[in-house]
């Protein structure tokens, strides 16, 4: 992304891309590209009681506007639709997909409630989900939070018992007879059944994926260099 940075320059610098302060730089170069996602879209509205939402460029999240302020969005979903492309870590966003796409594909949405990456049907340009399960898991979780990211403790020899482990590289639950049976497996990437592995590491989202109109989104390329 293009950003405003501090530099040393003479006060009479004639370069049009040199500004006296960060506020002027951002208002000239960043905010026009961000549109409704820009900080300047937040307005005073004392006395209005309905909730509104805004995009916080510092934390890169959509959040409820502060008391006495009005954001440009009437819902968190509307903010996520418009500003989701500016959020690299899409781990606390609603499940959304485009209303218009020729072919739906399997994508992965991080459910922050149960802390799992869940399979959904979406579109290639969706802004609140990931193209692969691996991208989703590695962005939004870690080994301490989910056993699915741990390396399977397979042991050195097979003992005849069948167990299963999750392979994050190809998003599959694989069978194995090599088990480190002397260690407890309750928090390890080893499961007694294929179903248990699937439910823990390859769940499908059972809620409704809200659809939005893609024409309400704007493609912003000037900030990405």
TrEMBL record:
Gene Ontology terms, MF aspect: serine-type endopeptidase inhibitor activity
One GO cellular component term noted in the UniProt record for this chain: extracellular space
Keyword entries, A-Z: Disulfide bond, Protease inhibitor, Serine protease inhibitor
SUPFAM superfamilies noted in UniProt: BPTI-like
SMART domains: KU
PROSITE patterns documented for this protein: BPTI_KUNITZ_2 (PS50279)
InterPro entries with a match to the protein in the record: Kunitz_BPTI, Kunitz_BPTI_sf, TFPI/VKTCI-like
Residues in BPTI/Kunitz inhibitor domain copies: 91-140, 148-201
Name the UniProt record assigns to this protein: BPTI/Kunitz inhibitor domain-containing protein
């Amino acid at each position: 992304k293009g950003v405003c940075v501090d530099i040393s320059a003479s006060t009479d610098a004639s370069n049009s891309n040199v500004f006296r302060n960060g506020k002027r730089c951002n208002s000239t170069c960043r905010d026009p590209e961000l549109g409704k996602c820009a900080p300047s879209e937040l307005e005073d509205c004392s006395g209005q009681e309905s909730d509104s939402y805004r995009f916080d460029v510092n934390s890169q999240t959509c959040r409820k506007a502060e008391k006495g302020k009005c954001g440009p969005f009437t819902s968190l979903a509307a903010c996520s639709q418009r500003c989701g492309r500016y959020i690299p870590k899409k781990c606390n966003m609603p499940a959304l997909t485009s209303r218009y796409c020729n072919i739906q594909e399997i994508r992965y949405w991080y459910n922050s409630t149960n802390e799992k990456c869940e399979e959904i049907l979406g579109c290639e340009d969706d802004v609140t989900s990931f193209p692969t399960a691996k991208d989703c898991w590695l962005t939004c979780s870690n080994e301490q939070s989910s056993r699915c990211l741990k390396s399977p403790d397979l042991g050195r020899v097979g003992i005849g018992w069948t167990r299963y482990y999750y392979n994050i590289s190809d998003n599959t639950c694989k069978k194995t007879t090599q088990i480190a049976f002397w260690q407890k497996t309750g928090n390890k990437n080893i499961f007694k059944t294929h179903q248990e592995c699937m439910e823990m590491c390859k769940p499908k989202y059972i809620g409704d994926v809200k659809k939005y109109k893609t024409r309400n989104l704007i493609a912003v390329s000037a900030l990405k260099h």
